[in-house]
Amino acid sequence: MVQKGPRPLVLCGPSGSGKSTLLKRLLNDFPDKFGFSVSHTTRAPRTGEKDGIHYHFTNKDDMIAAIEKGEFIETATFSGNMYGTSKHAVEEVRRTGKICVLDIEMEGVKQVKCTDLDPLLVFVMPPSIEELERRLRRRNTDPENALRKRLATAKREIEFGQQPGNFHVIILNDNLDKAYLELCEFIAKNVPDKGEVF
Q1: Annotated catalytic residue: which of 46, 134, 137, 148?
Q2: What domains are there in the chain, each with its CATH number?
Q3: Which of 95, 134, 137, 139 is catalytic?
């Protein structure tokens, strides 16, 4: 059972949609209001990533054991790596009274909707699949076959994001400042004591 606290905020969107950039800005602008739930992953750290800050880096055996013990709210396998949000990570944030922010994939969203967390669900939409591909290629972090997989997954995620009832709001990220403003307005409208949030 996850400890009660403010409704968590879930951000979902394809890799390259800009959700991580929006999230970073929100956490930087309002560090006393929002706390990030650090996910677990079995993938290797990328350059500059730190354990416990960007992810809790783990291995498949340990993660499978923790899942079997019921320690995770949601898990997903993406590009051959496991990802997940532990109950402990969410409780740590909620204990401080902050709004817990989760950055999770489509499969994770489906699982979180089945919990008693009652999260606010935000889908970050890229301007187009072509623009998404340009952004991912600019990053230069994936070999071509992994990039193709990411794009195929992105198409499925966009379809899921656009289905009525899956998210409370869809934010088109064709302009970062505009998308950020929309995100802030959505949170202000849906969080009690909104005057105290912003």
Answers
A1: 46
A2: 9-191 (3.40.50.300)
A3: 139
Q: pLDDT truncated to tens, each residue of the chain (198 aa)?
A: 444 678 899 999 998 899 999 999 999 999 999 999 999 999 999 999 999 998 999 999 999 999 999 999 999 888 789 999 999 999 989 889 999 999 998 999 999 999 888 999 999 999 999 999 998 899 888 889 989 988 999 999 999 999 999 999 999 999 999 999 999 999 999 986 644 555
Quick check: is 25 catalytic? no
CA distance 160 to 146: 21
Tell me the one-letter amino acid at 109.
V
